[in-house]
Amino acid sequence: MRRLPIYFLVDISESMVGAPIEEVQQGMRTIVQNLRVDPYALETVFVSIIAFAGKATILSPLTELYKFYPPQFPIGGGTSLGKGLEALMDDIDKSVQKTTKDLKGDWKPIIFLFTDGNPTDNYSSAFKRWNSKYRGHCNLVAISIGDNVNVLTLAQLTDDILLLKETDAESFSQFFKWITASIKSTSMSVGETNIDEVKLAPTTGINLEKVEVNSPTDYDYAEVDDNFVVLHGRCANTNNDYLVKYAKHYPTERRSGFRHDDGQYRLIGAYPVDKKSYKSLSSGKPPKINTMLLRGVPTCPCCGNQFGVVVCECGGISCAGADGYATCPWCGAGGELGEMGPDGMNITRGLG
Ligand SMILES: [Zn+2]
Ligand SMILES: [Zn+2]
To answer: Bridge-partner residues for 352, per DSSP?
Structure first.
């Protein structure tokens, strides 16, 4: 039996923490539930999930649909698209059956790449490998979640680039229905016509826009994603870790086409994170951010303490209660909370 391998290559960088990663997680469940009742898909579709932050990890190896169970998505620091792509290509070599003289191999794999930011690694050798050996034998559909992604980067990988303009729950739900419909129509077309080009479903009525790039150019990667600031905190009461996410604030109306950057970031929320997987999926040297640029302080998502961003002299970020006394879970020092000076202070941010 010829299989139709479907890969999801998912950005799990810090900027995905909170609602976006929860929507992706829910979306994967919906896709699998809907495909399982489709006779064509059930017969041919195999699914794999590869996630990348500072490092890449295979969350689910290529598995037949009826045995597939969507995994939990961890979060890591950094957006190493190059490493994600390498992991994908290595797995294609290992798991996808090639056509030989005596054997019809698997259908062309379809890869759905979801990313919400720009690569923080040097991806050029991975891109070269992709374009010389894999691009012609795969269908890669790249989806920018929100409009912070430089599409010129994605255009070096594929002609199929889509932009999910809004990232509210309804837009995500429509988007995952569109993915499901696209997989269904491709598996049907494969079964009936023996042609394994991806058949994307119509995007009418969905917040999803096809992006046309005329001249893909090289884009210099930046080591930090400047659209978000993510702080790595540790709860003083539970010793669990959490991320505090801020997004760049553009005061000018977007529809004027010009986004004025005043350098400030607004609080989005604070989210518990698994300490072990966060550490193992992060790479790169985190830069600093001045606290004066951050607007808003969350409560601690682990214990509910009133102050979720308290900075110790050791540089560690933790929580503290309303009584203003804190013991730093990073270095063990205790003390009264002090007032911050008028110039703020430089604290460590994640790579995003
Ligand atoms: Zn806490
Ligand atoms: Zn400390």
So the answer is: none
